[in-house]
Design a protein that fits this description.
Structural class of chain A: alpha/beta
Oligomer: heterodimer
Order of helices and strands of chain A: EEEHEEHEHHHEHEHEEHHEE
Number of strands of chain B: 0
Helix content of chain B: 55-70%
Largest interface: A-B, 48 and 41 residues
Radius of gyration of chain A: 19 Å
Distance between the termini of chain B: 28 Å
Number of helices of chain A: 9
Order of helices and strands of chain B: HHHHHHHHHHHHHHHH
Largest sheet of chain A: 6 strands, mixed
Strand content of chain A: 25-35%
Distance between the termini of chain A: 49 Å
């Protein structure tokens, strides 16, 4: 179904610049010149300081924001040529923050992920039912299906959001700090599930992550956003050096090795 | 019914959407209830007409069925010329207010929202009162008052355009950078409503002998129901309500917030504008023929959300049916209570019932979790 990893680009940003208009008429520049290409089936972690424009970059990739300069392309065509609905059929987002409407069951919310594929005016289709069931199964949320969504714990809620995004049957999955509010066990479980999905469904995944060690353990490729540019992009071993962490985050870390030789960035005492 | 929490869930047992049985019970039940309420409300009045005779007259006149005619003198005229237009108006008004209220509560993501919230009531009131006082304000217009356009008097016409125009103004003022933030819309609606309410108060102060008529209009009443008004209102309400009911998916997605809705394929600003215009069209039409009847548009959506859930697929058509039933019965009550304005009755009985329901459900359900 999908081409082997790295052979063909699914989404690409070329010299993308973006500034938010301010109420006083000025502009707050967030992205200066971003180059980032996601190959089909790739798993990429995006890291950077607060306010470095990671969420803005995701919004540009979905077409919610239009670049001031440069170009965003999806599947070879400029994103500006895509209709909202056609983007929604291919790209799903797990947002950093989502207010869940009250009173819905989990399965009902997951079905909302089917909206871009809706064919009937009122009825749900067999395809919807199948997609919802497999999304719930893949997100490890089958047992939540009939639960009221308002009663979920943080970890369960996150699984619901993953299921909603999967029900969309996307080619590209954008995750904005998916591990926020999760304990260590749930962080690992969620990222492991997303890796598995990448393998099973051939998804392309771009995940904004804060924990550098988690990013290194999760993704074979890490991109670092700083001052409106991608300043480093490559394997965790190449990218996440003590030097880069000091330059980008202004924090001194030591590089440690585990007994079996894995790299680890260790904080000095705070 | 919900599967037991302990039962293992399999992919085959996943239930999405309202089941056909559930939809049939809620909507079929609502339709039967509505027809029953209609017949009862037409039959009961100062001159009693039997249910059988009522059904016969309605069947004959509306459906052309060859049914046995009534023995009560004048019954056919009472039913057809007096009560039926009033009951049908009550049904249209109730259904229109309830569906518009459901839409505004979801669109503004605010449980306090009702169909009047962003300026319809204030704009329509000012228009209607200006219409009522037209002879006083502008003697030259006195000739025009009696005449009608599309069967509407000056009062109905000014109420309709006042309501619609105010909301369009509020919407345009709230728009910045191509977006209409919900909070700005609510606050602008409040501000514009306050200015118009000052205008209403000013006109009332100078109204002299018109005060009674103005007060009656503000309370909301169906006593002035006429076939000719229905000819104007029914098509507008049926069209706007239908177009709202089929937009259930967009309304559900907007509950998730603007960004998530856009990521699910909704053109958010366009969808909001379309929903606002349709709901305002329904509300302005209702207000033009019945004044500002309170409470129905606020409470019916909540009662239904508490009893059948928040999915607009079912909630929107149910609002139409149950809102229509409720107001047909409330207006019957108002007639039996000596012809008090129905708005008084809906508040008097509806509010305590609503409070009881809220307490029973043990929590006030906001539309969205904070």
């Amino acid at each position: 179904m999908t081409a082997p990893v790295g052979t063909e680009s699914l989404a690409a940003m070329e010299q993308v610049a973006f500034a938010y208009p301010m109420p006083d008429g000025g502009r707050r520049e967030v992205l200066r010149s971003v180059d980032l290409t996601l190959a089909r089936g790739e798993l990429v972690a995006l890291v950077g300081t607060n306010g470095s424009g990671k969420t803005t970059l995701l919004r540009l990739l979905t077409g919610l924001l239009k670049p001031d300069a440069g170009e965003v392309r999806f599947d070879g065509r400029p994103l500006s040529d895509w209709r909202r609905l056609d983007v929604a059929r291919r790209v799903a987002v797990l947002p950093q923050h989502l207010e869940l409407p009250v009173g819905f069951r989990v399965a009902e919310l997951v079905e909302m992920g089917r909206a871009p594929h809706a064919r009937r005016l009122f009825a749900s289709t067999e395809a919807d039912a199948r997609a919802v069931a497999s999304a719930l199964a893949d997100a490890g949320a089958l047992d939540l299906a009939d639960r009221p969504a308002d009663e979920l714990s943080g970890g369960e809620r996150q699984r619901l959001l993953v299921a909603m995004a999967l029900a969309q049957e996307p080619d590209l999955l954008l995750l904005d700090e998916p591990t926020l509010h999760l304990d260590l066990a749930h962080q690992v479980a969620l990222l492991a599930a997303i890796r598995r999905l990448r393998d099973q469904r051939g998804l392309t995944v771009l995940a904004v992550l804060h924990d550098l060690n988690l990013a290194a353990a999760f993704a074979p490729r890490v991109a670092v956003l700083d001052e409106g540019r991608v300043v480093a992009d490559g394997s965790p071993a190449e990218v996440l050096s003590t030097d880069l962490v000091r330059r980008v985050f202004g924090v001194h870390v030591d590089e440690a090795r585990t007994a079996d030789g894995r790299r680890h960035l260790a904080l000095r005492e705070v | 019914m919900r599967a037991a929490a302990t039962a293992p869930t399999t992919a085959q047992s996943i239930r999405i959407g309202p089941s056909l049985t559930r939809a049939t019970v809620v909507l079929g039940g609502g339709a039967i209830l509505l027809l029953t309420a209609m017949v009862v409300a037409v039959a009961i009045g100062s001159v009693g007409v039997g249910i059988g005779d009522t059904v016969a007259v309605l069947g004959h006149r509306l459906l052309g069925l060859p049914l046995a005619r009534t023995e009560v003198p004048g019954a056919e005229s009472i039913i057809f010329d007096v009560r039926l237009p009033r009951v049908l108006t009550a049904m249209l008004v109730g259904g229109g207010l309830a569906v518009a209220g459901t839409v505004f509560q979801a669109l503004l993501r605010n449980p306090m929202a009702d169909p009047y919230i962003i300026g319809t009531a204030a704009g329509a009131s000012l228009g209607a009162i200006a219409g009522l006082m037209a002879p006083l304000l502008l003697p030259a217009l006195a000739i025009g008052v009696g005449s009608s356009w599309l069967g509407l008097g000056l009062v109905q016409l000014l109420a309709f355009t006042g309501g619609l125009g105010t909301v369009l103004l509020v919407y345009a003022v709230s728009r910045a950078n191509g977006r209409v933030p919900v909070v700005t819309l609510l606050l602008t609606g409040y501000a514009v409503s306050s200015v118009l309410a000052a205008g209403v108060a000013l006109l009332m102060f100078f109204s002299g002998q018109h005060l009674g008529a103005i007060f009656g209009w503000l309370m909301g009443s169906l006593a002035g129901a006429k076939w000719i008004h229905l000819a104007f209102a029914a098509p507008l309400l049926i069209i706007s309500a239908t177009l709202l009911v089929v937009r259930w998916r967009g309304l559900n997605l907007l509950l998730l917030g603007d960004g998530p809705a856009a990521n699910l394929g909704i053109d958010v600003e366009r969808e909001k504008l379309v929903l606002t215009i349709l709901a305002t069209l329904a509300t302005s039409t209702v207000v033009a023929i019945s004044g500002t009847i309170g409470f129905v548009g606020l409470v019916v959506p909540h009662v239904l959300r508490l009893s059948i859930g928040p999915d607009h697929r079912l909630l929107l058509p149910a609002s139409v049916l149950y809102g229509a039933t409720l107001l047909a019965l409330a207006d019957l009550g108002a007639r039996l209570a000596g012809g008090i304005p129905v708005g008084i009755l809906t508040a008097l009985i509806g509010a305590p019932f609503f409070v009881w329901l809220l307490r029973r459900s043990r929590m006030v359900r906001p539309v969205v979790t904070p």
